Amino acid sequence: MRWIYRALLFVFALFVSGTAFCKVPVLVVYPETDASLQHIYTAVITGIDHQVGSTTQLALTPDMINLQATLDHLQPDHIIALGKTAAEAVRHSTYNDRLWVGMMAFTPPDYRGVSLTLDSKRLVQQVAHFAPFIKRLFVVQEARNLSVSLNEKAAASASKAIKFKSANENSNEPDIILREGEDMIMTIRLLGHLVEQEATTRDAVLLPVNLPNDILYEISRIAWDRHIILLSTNLYHLENGALIVLYPDPVALGEQLGRLIAKKNGQSESLQGLKAALNKLIARHLNLDFDAEALQRFEVTIK
Amino acid sequence: MNRFQSQDLRQRFETAVFAVMAIAGSILMLFLNLAIAEFATDYTRHYWQEHTQTFADSVKYSLIMHAASGSEDIARHFTVDKTVLKASIYSNPQRVLASAGGNETCPSTQNPPISQGSFTDTPDFWCFYAPVIQDGKGIGYVELVVSKQELKAVLLHIRWISGLMVLAILVILYAAVTRFSSRFTRTMVELSSVLKNVSLGIPGQQVAFSGSADLAPMRDTFNDMLTRIESNERELEQKISEKTQALAKALESSEAANHYKSYIIAAVSHEMKTPLHAIGAYLELTAASLPPDACYDSIREFHRRGLLRVGELNDLICNILLHGKLNAKMVEAAFKPLAIEPLMLACAEKLAPSLERQQNRLKLSGEQLSVISDAELLTHVVTNMLSNACKFTSAGDITLSWWQTASDLLIQVSDTGCGIPESCYDKIFDSFWQVDMSSTRAYGGTGLGLAITKQCVDLLGGIITVRANGAQGSVFEVKIPNR
Is B460 exposed, middle or buried (CB count within 10 Å of its CB: 0-12, 13-18, 19+)? Predict the structure, then answer.
């Protein structure tokens, strides 16, 4: 009889262990949002799926009390957190070492993953691709909210006003001049000075990603009057004064994240997959002609 | 108030309704205006506070850029509205970056930097403040001086319109009340009219109002009541008429009987006195003609007693005649100077036969006084009191005393006789009344003595009282004012 009891106990232990732990390879955590933003997360997850196969998704709701318990139950090998809310939530769990982040700007080594901060090299390539007529690009940003990262930045960081030439002197890539403010007020002053006085009609200014709307209106009005080209990485700016907005391609971002976690020693990368949107009204105002071929490069155009 | 009192029921109703409506309308208008003023002021302040915040938002960029000219343009733009008297932009710490408009000076505000919207109030304008904030840090603030004139004008306008509206409503309501007041007051007016006619004694009054279900029973009840009142009045009048006629007859009979009684008494008394005088004269003549022999002494004694009885009978008849005259108001007082003591002695002398017969002792106590009075009436008073005392006293003492105070002459007659029960004090002065009025009574007389005494004292303007004389007898006291 004793062997029968042992066999039953073994079967029960297997059953209990099977229901208590559900090991998943990749868990994607993202905040629960309304339908208008949900498709972005869906697109990113689709990109991830392209690289790592199927993933498990977990939508964070405001009333989710214990993420730790959920993670304990799922036992993921990798956790990809999309957005700052999800990243912070996972960061405070015991699965911090398995965390990868996307859809947020960060500076290593705070996180690892794909930062929304653009690599300067990638930026000039994109600008040259979409707006080859731009000869000089002023990048204005707040020090604590970077939208562009520069490898050369460290060398000349003392001046906070960095200018560097493209590696290829004959290419269409514009010169980049970086202006960083310590805070938003300083950033606005730099931006205002630039738009009001320094920039010319052949120059473009990359707006700070977190520029307040009321200041955006003022800057746009001045730029409109002075025919200054405004660029941005914030889609909201497209309808409020920016000629071109470079924004992440969610599927490409997902694929980049998928590739990153597949690497043995992958850490952090800048965003590679970009899309562009064009405001044709501003283009007309600036007397910029985009032929059909050029227009096809833009994912979104508005009149 | 007098005018209201002189109004009829319908006018009072209209006045009351109008007064109530006027008071209600005034109160309503007052509170309405207060509420509107409060709301409008709050709303206006809120609006301008928001406007100031808009101003602050508008200048944020200029303030960040320290752009004085741009700031001034914006400030000037905000003073285009004539309600805005002044627009100023301040950069911290409290430095004017730009200003446009007038020279109004605002009262001191909270210590800068201003961290939230606020305002200060003056009689003529408000000063609104709004901070300019970037990244949670105040970089300056704006000040907007807003005139109150427009709000005051609007409130005045509202006040006029609401006043006129209330007035118009009151006029319409008053016209409606006046028009329909007859319906409301018809019942009361008819009741009032009928009651007035009833009070004037107009017979056959009935009400005819109608209307709601509760009015018909009220009308019927009221008409029944009027009918009963009228019927009762008729019965009462009939009874009063009958009683009046009976009373008139009784009075007539009484007067006739009284007259007849007086006539009979006078006639009988007169007819009795004539033979009595003759009897007295004959007795005196017979007694005088008797020889002086001792054997005729007993006869002479009989004559003397007979003459005494004749005298007593004569006094009784005189009293009856005097009572008749007093009742007929035929006696008047004739006041003359009078010596009291001789009068008293004369009265005492008259009483001598009675004193002797009753074995009473009379004591006189008094001074020689001279007063102004009627001697005859005073003699009747003293004589009757002494006679009364002597009649009810047997082998006792009778005291006649008199004296004078500053204002009165007092005469007192006390006896030690059988006395008078206290319960009879208020009756002893009635005519023909005696304590024992039975046919077997011990004391004789007509019961007129004290009645005549009282009537004489009254004629002299005095009062007479009676009280017990200790354990035995009575005390009669007369108080006659000095003239």
Answer: buried
Q: Which of A264, A262, A265, A206 is nearest to A237 (CA)?
A: A206
pTM of the model: 0.54
Are residues A154 and A113 in contact, defined by beta-carbon separation less than 8 angstroms? Answer: no
Per the CB < 8 A criterion, the answer to whether B338 and B311 are in contact is no
Sheet holding B361-366, edge to edge: B361-366, B397-404, B408-415, B474-481, B463-468
Question: Which of B26, B45, B22 has its CA nearest to residue B34?
Answer: B26
Q: How far is A189 from chain B (nearest CA, A)?
A: 6
What pLDDT does residue A1 have?
45
Helices and strands of chain B, counted as H and E runs: 10, 12
Label residue A15 by pLDDT band (50, 70, 90). Answer: very low
Distance CA B299, CA B287 (A): 8
Least CB–CB distance from A183: residue in B60, B65, B135: B135
Query: b/e for A180-219, b at 16 or more Cβ within 10 A?
Result: bbeebbbbbbbbbebbbeebeeebbbbbbbebbeebbebb
The answer to whether B320 and B264 are in contact (CB under 8 A) is: no
Report the share of chain B in percent with pLDDT over 70: 95
ipTM score? 0.71
How many beta-carbon pairs below 8 A join chains A and B? 29
